[in-house]
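Feature request, filed as a ticket because there's no other form

It would be nice if the structure record came with a short human-readable summary line next to the tokens. Right now we just get the raw output. Example of a typical job, pasted below so the devs can see what we mean:
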Amino acid sequence: MDYTLEMVMKGDAKILKYYENAEKLWQEIMSSPKANDLTSLAKLISNQQFCFEGQCGGKDIGQEVMAVSGILRYYSTASGWEDNFPKAKLVYEAIKKSNCSLEIKSDADSVAEHHHFNE
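Raw output as currently delivered:
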């Protein structure tokens, strides 16, 4: 999460647009009828990596934004996961099963670790 945090710290407002773009991409992915099945979702996610990179700041930033936004779109600091944890866990597991880069998978692991997915 270093790339996006660095942009925030430098006051680079483009990061907001990158996360807005990511949210639209995730809405598209998760609205697919195939999004409820782990294997199908992993394929959908694999096919979108380059879209995230293209619309979310380039390779390094786009990969980070993809992983972080995909999982944390279900989380709120005010109320936690509420009933959304199964969806977040599905996205995490699909990222891990996907053909996405090791960097995306590592970023997903960081989010999962920080939010105690395996406890």
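Something like this underneath would help us a lot:
The two ends are 22 Å apart (CA to CA).
The mean pLDDT is 95.
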